[in-house]
Amino acid sequence: xxxxxxxxxxxxxxxxxxxxxxxxxxxxVGSNVAGFGSSNSIFNNPAxxxxxxxxxxxxxxxxxxxxxxxxxxxxxxxxPLPFLGNISxxxxxxxxxxxxxxxxxxxxxxxxHGFNLQKDKNSxxxxxxxxxxxxxxxxxxxxxxxxxTDGLNFGSLNTVTIDLGFIASLRHKYRCGVYIKNMNSGAxxxxxxxxxxxxxxxxxxxxxxxxxxxxxxxxxxxxxDNDIQIKGGLQYSLNSMINLMMGVQANPNxxxxxxxxxxxxxxxxxxxxxxxxxxxxxxLGLGLSF
Length: 290
Description:
The chain is mainly β. It has 3 helices and 16 strands. The chain has helices at 2-12, 23-27, 41-44, and strands at residues 56-63, 71-81, 85-98, 101-119, 123-138, 156-170, 174-181, 187-188, 195-196, 200-210, 213-222, 229-237, 242-250, 254-263, 266-273, 281-289. The longest helix is centred in the first third of the chain and has 11 residues, at 2-12.
């Protein structure tokens, strides 16, 4: 059982490459690579940080696929600086548990910078970069007694990865975004155990036919893999307090839906994401802006 849990954690739910990390990404199945930015843009396209004009804090998470032994959490903050653009910090963590024992902890600490390369009345070109420090801590083995009291300590592994992003917009209606994850081919381990972490390309467009509706379509591909995922999503402002979100994905087929509730300078977000085999993932998020 312990081997199975570790395998599921490392292969299917790496915190270093989760395009559905935040509640908004879950609800829109990761199709928001060209969407309007927030402090959470540090996780899906740092170029979106250039859209943020205030100080923001955001946090959220849930149990992946509804499993209590796979808790996942994230936190992000963003601060605009004069002449320098926006500086953002992010943290994400995923644990694999068995009862009261923690078998594995994956966590990433990120620092991002987003700014405008060009901006005028009709158009805007933004660039963003993120440096990630990734650490994977392994728990003790079961040992001879089976309870971990005399088990081996497997230690931890770590590495650094770099992400890049661009967003171009025209007349506040058309947006095109590109995001490259792990551009420097960061790897975990050494020698025969060295494993290059996933390198991912996301590219998409967002169109706003009216001020209250944005529609997005994007593609996602793991570099070195021929398979391409096609994603589509939309976000609709029902009124000044409620935003509705939904998305669909092909290869494999997944569906997301969610809502954002605004209260003055606070937000409460809910996201739901299906899986073709595993149960549904539910996430809650909280946001604060100044």
